[in-house]
């Protein structure tokens, strides 16, 4: 239809020009010519429309559909997209977080990294050497726990291991390997990989060990080295925060073992959210008291004087609780006191050692 519009515009311009150039005595002659041009144009327009319909109708069944069918077949032949590494990465992070000893933490690190490589090993720094701690999927001394713990790599001899320790940066190597690296690989792994990498384990800015990972055939997948480095860094941070993390682990275990809190009372829909928030907030406040005063909680239960021992923390937390929620909520049900009994007193209100509540009123 664009061609028709162009022809129509061209003829209109030519007719207007012709009318301007002729005198009045020739107007009648020009009118006759214009009428004949209109008839020719109408016939041309009808022919173009028919041609467009014919071409368009032919293209759909004979070109578009075969191309679409062919494209669908090509898509079916393509391999499915690789699975996302995120679920395995998050599972490994959770396992590292829940480790209660450094040995368990390194075991969790090994298991997590094993999903992103073939051979793997952890070395720890001892004096002027890197000593084997544990290997996985290796064929040399790394396959034998006892022998690997007696295997060491000197730090004063040039090698990828020494460079990783000195530079505190990841080292990646591909064939041909240097003589020192080749000797280490042959003895430790029992084979020469297609590629290997060494990741430093830094605790408080100092290298305390390193992790070895390799691919026996083929290159790394793009996401694999990054996933391994994330896990190594997370494990190093978990070592640094071990004392505080143990408290967090114990709190999580206690929460899992505790009976469920009583359900909020039946209230109007507009108040339900406030009651749920009040119950959750009270529970968090009391759990925090317990977490930071574990020894006092044990003694308070034994001597039935929990409130007296923890008076300052309890009253401070109760004040925060009362200031956060409207009186219509806190007066209807005392979630804070319920959590004191449930969390601190293990369900026995007599362990608080008080005759009435609230004590300060």
Walk me through this protein's architecture.
The protein is of the alpha+beta class. The protein folds into 3 domains: 2-77; 86-244, 2-Layer Sandwich (Beta-Lactamase); 258-352. 60% of the residues lie in helices and 11% in strands. It has a 6-stranded antiparallel β-sheet with strand order 3-2-1-6-5-4, with helices on both faces. The longest helix is centred in the first third of the chain and has 51 residues, at 27-77. It starts with a helix and ends in a 17-residue tail after the last helix. 25% of the residues are buried. Residues 57-63 have low confidence and may be disordered.
Keywords:
flat; alpha+beta; single chain; Beta-Lactamase; 15 helices
In brief, what are we looking at here?
By secondary structure, the protein is of the alpha+beta class. Helix content is 60%, strand content 11%.
Proportion in β-strands: 5-15%
Number of DSSP E strands: 6
Query: How many DSSP helices?
Result: 15
Q: Report the mean per-residue pLDDT as an integer.
A: 81
Q: Which of globular, elongated, flat, extended, rod-shaped describes the shape?
A: flat
What is the fold named in CATH at topology level of the largest domain? Answer: Beta-Lactamase
**What sequence of helices (H) and strands (E) makes up the elements?**
HHHHEEHEHEHEEHHHHHHHH
**Major beta sheet summary:** 6 strands, antiparallel
Report the span from N to C terminus.
89 Å
Radius of gyration: 40 Å
Mind telling me the CATH superfamily name of the largest domain? Answer: GAF domain
Which percent range fits the helix content?
Answer: 55-70%
What's the CATH class of the largest domain, please?
Answer: Alpha Beta
CATH architecture heading of the largest domain: 2-Layer Sandwich
> Would you identify the regions where 5 or more consecutive residues have pLDDT less than 50?
57-63
Strand order of the largest sheet: 3-2-1-6-5-4
Please identify the structural class as seen in this structure.
alpha+beta
